[in-house]
Amino acid sequence: MKLSRFTESLPAHAEGGLMAAVLKNKFLSAIAQEDLAAMLPRMREVELRKGQVLIEQEAAVEEVHFPLSAQLCNLTIFTDGRSVETAVVGSEGVSGLAPFLADAPCAWQVVVQIAGSALALPSSVLRSQARESADLRGLLVRLVHDYQAQSAQTAACNTVHRSTAKLARWLLMFDDRSQGKKLEITQQDLAALMGMQRTTINQAAGELKTLGAIAYQRGYIRITNRDLLERSSCECYEMQRRRSRALGLDPA
């Protein structure tokens, strides 16, 4: 089932503002009317700050977030304080999905990477509705598979490919979910997210800038030529994009 079957008729009790927000999230736009009607009264729209922690590593998932204009990332936190990004979540999906479905502590930290809006829902509400609805369970399983594939592709990419290609892939994934926003991040923070040395990121960013694919100033990176960036990326970006599209989960 593709994530594109939202019906013309909407729940009668839905407020216009909240219903308009629902349509900005591809997962929510795809679920059956009766599932949406059951959960909508417990949803609320929230504004998320850059750097805000939504789920702590090893904590229970009490609330899930469906990004609208915000972008989230999953971080694995090590005992020495270092952290590495393992997946990104945009308007195609929902935060904390695998641990929420397993009713288990979250194995990573969920952090707001790009400030913006999201719909928040108590995890118990989504879990209860998923028990009742085979259609909703099917969509959730597809999304879990997509995020698992993304994490596996990232792990493989980090082991095999050059830093410039990895940075290009990361920037493309950001661009797919950014809704035209420029990337507000320092190269030091980007190096930490990608598990690289700052000098390595500086060199990779310099190569992409010289090529004409990106421009940057202190604290910001802007994509200036997406075609060049795609040609600079490793095969991992296109492989993951094909998988997501096949599932109806393409974030772009």
SSE blueprint and pairings:
Elements: H1 16-22, H2 26-30, H3 33-39, E1 44-48, E2 53-55, E3 63-67, E4 71-77, E5 83-89, H4 97-102, E6 109-114, E7 116-122, H5 123-132, H6 134-160, H7 163-178, E8 183-184, H8 187-194, H9 198-211, E9 214-217, E10 220-223, H10 226-232, H11 235-246
Helix pairs in contact: 5-6, 6-11, 7-9, 7-10, 8-9
Structure description:
This protein has 2 domains: 16-155, Sandwich (Jelly Rolls); 162-233, Winged helix-like DNA-binding domain superfamily/Winged helix DNA-binding domain (Arc Repressor Mutant, subunit A). With 252 residues, the chain is an alpha+beta fold. It has 11 helices and 10 strands. The protein starts with 15 loop residues before the first helix and ends in a 6-residue tail after the last helix.
Quick summary:
The chain is α+β, with helices and mostly antiparallel strands and 252 residues long. It has helices at 16-22, 26-30, 33-39, 97-102, 123-132, 134-160, 163-178, 187-194, 198-211, 226-232, 235-246, and strands at 44-48, 53-55, 63-67, 71-77, 83-89, 109-114, 116-122, 183-184, 214-217, 220-223. It has 2 domains: 16-155, Sandwich (Jelly Rolls); 162-233, Arc Repressor Mutant, subunit A, CATH 1.10.10.10.
The gyration radius over C-alpha positions equals 18 Å
The CATH class of the largest domain: Mainly Beta
Supply the number of helical segments. 11
- Percent of sequence in beta strands: 15-25%
GO molecular function, one term: DNA binding
InterPro entries: cNMP-bd_dom, cNMP-bd_dom_sf, Env_Response_Regulators, HTH_CRP, RmlC-like_jellyroll, WH-like_DNA-bd_sf, WH_DNA-bd_sf
Domain HTH crp-type: 161-227
Keywords: DNA-binding, Transcription, Transcription regulation
